[in-house]
Amino acid sequence: MFATPAYAQAAGGAGGSAIMQFVPLILIFAIMYLLLIRPQQKKVKQHQKMVSELRRGDQIVTQGGIIAKVSKVKDENELEVEIADGTKVRVVRSTVAQVLSKTEPASEG
User: Fold this and answer.
1) Which Pfam families match (predicted)?
2) For the domain 54-101, what is the CATH code?
């Protein structure tokens, strides 16, 4: 039937330099960086700043959804929070998801 073999054309059609072959890959990486990586880094920095500024009296929400009031800042990684009258628990600072209300720093006068 149709037994004619199809032969490839001459090798001159591939043209272009090696750098031009990597341009789409570089563009994909740049778009991924601008749309995914950079906003995530900003969000992490904002969270770290929020957590580092926690003080006694701040009302917070943990990642588990517990609304609590900071009663003591123990150390750089731990908080003591009051979730009900007389019920205090220790939580890791990084588990604070949101600060509902901030307390004003005490005046020095």
Assistant:
1) YajC
2) 2.30.30
> What number of H helices and E strands is found in the chain?
2, 5
Q: What is the pTM of this model?
A: 0.67
- Predicted confidence (pLDDT) per residue in 83-99, tens digit: 999 999 999 999 999 99
pLDDT digits (tens, 9 = 90+) for 8-20: 544 444 556 888 8
78 Cβ contact partners less than 8 Å away, ≥ 6 residues apart: 90, 91, 92, 93
CB atoms inside a 10 Å sphere around CB 39: 11
Q: Which residues pair with 78 in a beta bridge?
A: 75, 92
- CA 9 – CA 49 distance, rounded (Å): 62
